[in-house]
Design brief:
alpha+beta; 4 domains; five-stranded antiparallel β-sheet; 56% helix
C-alpha cells in the first residue's frame, strides 16, 4: 500500500485528491436520501494506494451533507475502521488481500445501525432490511470501484481496457451522473455529457462512439425514469460521426440543431424562459468548447488512445518476429563467415626448393665418397642455385650447372636425379595449386552468402514504423467508391507499404492514385494476392522517382545461325534493375553458349544480391575452368530508380555511351575478357543519370563498323533520339550500311532510357 507525506503532495497528486473529493461529493447525491455511496469510492481509493488520512478527511467532510449527527458518527466509525486496517497493513508490510472483504463488511455495520434512513415506499421491506440491501450495494461498489480507479490511474489513454474495467468505469459514471442530476440538475448533465459525446465522436471517428454515447445517457434514464435518452444520445453520436469527415466544426455544429429538436419534442418551449435559456446553453457550450479546442490537442489525444487501436498487438508481434528472424539470419551469416575462414587458402606456400635440396643430400649425396669435399667447399650452396633454376625452368641441363659444382664427381647423376624430382614435385605443386584455388572459390562463395545473409539480417532487424494515415486512406477510398475491409500502412520513406483487402476487380491504377493522394506519397501497385474467389490483397509501395524503357537491336554474323551476343534486362528489386550485354569470343553457337553462360551466372548472383566483387571473380573462375578456351566481353549496369545512380562494369567490352540533352559521356574500360586470366580487374565506374538520358552498350561488331571511336562519337552526338528502341535500330542500321548491309560479325545494340515517373 502506498503512503505519502502530506507535505510532499505534488500538484498532480493534489489534483488527484481533488478529483476524488468531487467524485465522492457526487456519489453522496446519487440517491434521494443522501446515502453514503461515497464510501465505496473512499474505500477503493485507500486500497488502491491513496493516502488514507487525506481520503478519510475528505470522507468526514462529506458526511455533513445529510446534515445529521448520526450520519457523521456513522461515517467517522467507518473511516476509523479503514484507517486502522491501513495502519495494520503498513505495520506488517502486507498488501491488501481477500481479507479486505471482511474489512468492508465490518465497515457497513455502522451504516446499518446508525445512519438515519426512512426507507423507500416502493420496497415492501422494513427500513433495517432496506439498509442491509443498501449496504450490500455499497459493498459491491467498493469492490468494483477499485478496478475503476486502477483504470483511471494506470490504463486509460495507455492501453486497451478489458471488458471488466469498462464495466466498472461505466458504473462509476452512472452513479456519478445521477449525483450530477440530483445536485445540479439535468441542464448541467446535458452540458457535461454532450461535451464527452462530441469529443468521443471527433477523436474516435468510428462506431465505438455510439455505445459510449449510450453509456453516457444511462444516468439521465435513471433520473427521468425513461429510456428515451438512450435513443437520443445514440442518434446524436451517429449524426456527429456522419459529419466527422468534414472536420470537427461540422461535427460540432451538426449536434446543436439535433439537440434543440429533441428538446422541442420533449416540451422545452412549454417551460419558463429561464429553463429555455439554460437548456440552450447546455447544448451550445459543448459545441463551442469542442470547436475552440486546438487541433494539436486532438492529435495528441488520438496518439494516446491505444484503447481503440485494435491492431497494436499484431504490429508489435510483426516487429518482434522481424527481430527474431534478423538475429537468426545474423547467426547463420556468422557461420558462413567461419566457413570462409576455414576454406581460405594459406598465404604461405611450401618451399619446394629447400625440400628438393634436402632430398638430394639425403639420397644421392649420402653415399657419395666425395661428400666431405663438397661440404668443405661451396658445392652445396651451388646446388641450391641449381635447384632454384630448376624450379624456375622445370628442368636443368649441363648448361645450368654452376662452376662451383665442377668438383662433383657425379654431375650427370645429380642432373638426372634433380630432373626426376622436379617432375614429381611439379605434379604435386599443380595439385596443391588446384586444391588451393578450389578452397579460394569456396571461401569466396561463403563470403558472398555471408554478406547476403548479413544484409537481410540488418534489414529484418530494422523495426517497421506504422503510419497513422489509415483512417484518412479509408475515407479517401470510400469517397472514390472503393471499400476496404482492412488497411495496413507501415514503413517510411522508400520502405512505405500499404496492404488492403479489396474485391478482386478493383482498378489498380485508380487505387494507386487515390491512395497516393490520401497519403501524400506517389504509390504504385506492387502485388495482388488472391485471398478468396472474390477478394484479393493489394500491396502498394512507394513509386520510384524514375522509370526505364529498353530497346534491343541485334543481328548475327552472315552465314551463322546463332548470334554470339546475348543481353539481359533484370529487375533486381522494386527500386533497381540490371542490364547487361555479353559478347562471346568468335561467333555462332559456341560464342552464344559462352555468352548465355556468363549472363545466366551473373543474373543468378545479382538476383541473390551477392557483392559485385565476389560475383565477378567467381564468374571469371568458372568460365576459366571451361574445357574450351572461350572468353566473354561484358557490359553491365545496375541502376537505382530512386536516384538515377548507375554502377557500371566493363570487362573487355568496347566503348559505351550516355546520351543527355546537353552532353555525351563515354564509358570505357581496359580489362581483358572474362575467363582469359584467373583473376580479372574489371573497369568499374559510377554515373548519375537524369530524366531522358540514354545509356548505350554495343558489341564489337557494331563499334568495328564505324572504324574509330572518334567517328562513332561524332555520329552519336548528332542523334536526337525519342525512344530507346528506335535509337538501337538506327545505330544498328547505320553500322550495317557502312558494310553495304552485311554483318561481318555478331552485332547487338542495347539502349536504356531513364524517364521521370508519371
Amino acid at each position: 500500500m502506498k503512503h505519502l507525506r502530506l507535505s510532499s503532495l505534488s500538484k498532480k497528486e493534489a489534483g488527484k485528491y481533488c478529483a476524488l473529493f468531487l467524485g465522492m461529493l457526487l456519489l453522496h447525491f446519487a440517491l434521494p436520501q443522501r446515502e453514503p455511496l461515497s464510501f465505496a469510492l473512499f474505500s477503493a481509493a485507500i486500497f488502491c494506494g491513496f493516502h488514507p488520512l487525506v481520503c478519510a478527511a475528505e470522507y468526514l467532510v462529506l458526511s455533513a451533507v445529510p446534515l445529521s449527527a448520526a450520519a457523521t458518527l456513522s461515517a467517522a466509525i467507518q473511516a476509523a475502521i479503514l484507517l486502522l486496517a491501513s495502519l495494520l497493513y503498513r505495520r506488517f508490510h502486507r498488501k491488501p488481500g481477500l481479507e479486505r472483504a471482511a474489512i468492508l463488511a465490518l465497515a457497513q455495520i455502522p451504516f446499518v445501525f446508525l445512519f438515519p434512513h426512512t426507507g423507500y415506499g416502493f420496497l415492501p421491506l422494513p427500513v433495517v432490511w432496506q439498509k442491509v440491501l443498501l449496504s450490500v450495494l455499497i459493498f459491491l461498489l467498493s469492490v468494483l470501484f477499485e478496478g475503476a480507479i486502477d483504470a483511471l490511474q494506470h490504463r486509460v489513454f495507455r492501453c486497451r481496457l478489458p471488458a471488466g474495467q469498462l464495466t466498472e468505469l461505466s458504473l462509476l459514471w452512472i452513479f456519478g451522473g445521477l449525483g450530477v442530476c440530483n445536485a445540479l440538475g439535468d441542464k448541467v448533465f446535458f452540458a457535461l455529457s454532450l461535451t464527452m459525446l462530441l469529443l468521443s465522436a471527433v477523436l474516435l471517428k468510428n462506431a465505438s462512439a455510439v455505445p459510449f454515447a449510450v453509456i453516457l445517457s444511462l444516468p439521465l434514464c435513471l433520473y427521468w425514469g425513461s429510456a428515451l435518452p438512450v435513443a437520443e444520445y445514440a442518434l446524436f453520436s451517429c449524426i456527429c460521426l456522419l459529419f466527422c469527415p468534414y472536420g470537427k466544426l461540422a461535427s460540432a455544429f451538426a449536434l446543436l440543431p439535433c439537440f434543440l429538436v429533441a428538446r422541442f419534442l420533449s416540451g422545452l418551449y412549454a417551460e419558463g424562459g429561464t429553463e429555455i435559456v439554460f437548456t440552450l446553453l447546455s447544448g451550445l457550450l459543448p459545441v463551442l468548447l469542442c470547436a475552440c479546442l486546438p487541433e494539436k490537442l486532438y492529435s495528441r489525444v488520438r496518439e494516446s488512445l491505444l484503447f481503440y487501436r485494435e491492431r497494436s498487438l499484431p504490429r508489435i508481434a510483426i516487429n518482434r518476429n522481424r527481430r527474431a528472424v534478423g538475429e537468426r539470419l545474423y547467426e547463420v551469416s556468422s557461420l558462413f563467415r567461419e566457413i570462409e575462414g576455414a576454406f581460405s587458402p594459406e598465404s604461405d606456400r611450401a618451399d619446394f626448393g629447400s625440400q628438393l635440396c634436402r632430398q638430394l643430400r639425403q639420397t644421392l649425396c649420402a653415399s657419395c665418397p666425395g661428400r666431405k669435399k663438397c661440404e668443405n667447399s661451396n658445392a652445396f650452396s651451388a646446388m641450391n642455385k641449381l635447384v632454384a633454376v630448376g624450379c624456375a625452368k622445370g628442368q636443368v641441363t649441363l648448361v645450368d650447372l654452376p662452376s662451383d659444382l665442377n668438383i662433383c664427381g657425379n654431375a650427370a647423376g645429380l642432373l638426372f636425379a634433380l630432373n626426376r624430382l622436379l617432375a614429381q614435385y611439379r605434379g604435386a605443386a599443380q595439385e596443391s595449386e588446384s586444391a588451393r584455388e578450389s578452397r579460394r572459390l569456396l571461401a569466396e562463395q561463403a563470403h558472398g552468402v555471408s554478406e547476403i545473409l548479413r544484409d537481410i539480417a540488418l534489414e529484418q532487424s530494422e523495426e517497421f514504423v506504422f503510419s497513422d494515415g489509415e483512417q484518412a486512406l479509408s475515407r479517401a477510398l470510400a469517397t472514390a467508391g472503393i471499400l476496404s475491409s482492412e488497411i495496413f500502412v507501415y514503413g517510411e520513406g522508400n520502405t512505405l507499404t500499404v496492404s488492403l483487402t479489396l474485391t478482386k476487380d478493383v482498378n489498380g491504377k485508380l487505387l494507386s492514385t487515390v491512395a497516393g493522394e490520401a497519403l501524400g506519397i506517389p504509390l504504385s501497385l506492387s502485388e495482388k494476392i488472391p485471398l478468396s474467389p472474390g477478394r484479393s490483397c493489394y500491396v502498394l509501395k512507394r513509386k520510384p522517382a524514375f522509370d526505364a524503357a529498353f530497346g534491343i537491336a541485334s543481328r548475327c554474323k552472315d552465314g551463322e545461325s546463332a548470334n554470339g551476343d546475348t543481353y539481359s534486362v533484370l529487375k533486381i528489386d522494386e527500386r533497381r534493375f540490371l542490364v547487361a550485354l555479353s559478347d562471346g569470343m568468335g561467333s555462332g553457337a559456341g560464342a552464344r553458349e559462352i555468352s548465355d553462360r556468363t549472363l545466366t551466372l551473373l543474373e543468378s548472383f545479382y538476383k541473390a544480391k551477392m557483392p559485385s566483387e565476389t560475383v565477378l571473380s567467381t564468374v571469371n573462375r568458372l568460365i576459366s575452368y571451361s574445357s574450351d578456351e572461350m572468353f566473354a566481353c561484358l557490359d553491365l549496369a545496375a541502376v537505382d530508380l530512386d536516384t538515377g545512380e548507375a554502377d557500371i562494369v566493363k570487362i573487355g567490352a568496347p566503348v559505351g555511351f550516355i546520351l543527355s540533352d546537353d552532353e555525351m559521356r563515354v564509358l570505357e574500360g581496359e580489362s581483358l575478357p572474362m575467363g582469359m586470366l584467373d583473376a580479372i580487374h574489371p573497369a568499374t565506374m559510377q554515373a548519375d543519370m537524369k530524366a531522358n538520358d540514354f545509356m548505350i552498350f554495343m558489341s564489337d561488331g557494331v563499334t568495328a563498323a564505324f572504324g574509330s571511336a572518334a567517328e562513332l562519337y561524332s555520329y552519336l552526338s548528332a542523334l536526337r533520339p525519342l525512344n530507346p528502341q528506335s535509337l538501337a535500330e538506327e545505330i544498328l542500321g547505320n553500322a550495317l550500311a557502312r558494310h553495304q548491309g552485311t554483318a561481318q560479325d555478331d552485332m547487338t545494340v542495347l539502349a536504356v532510357k531513364l524517364m521521370k515517373t508519371a
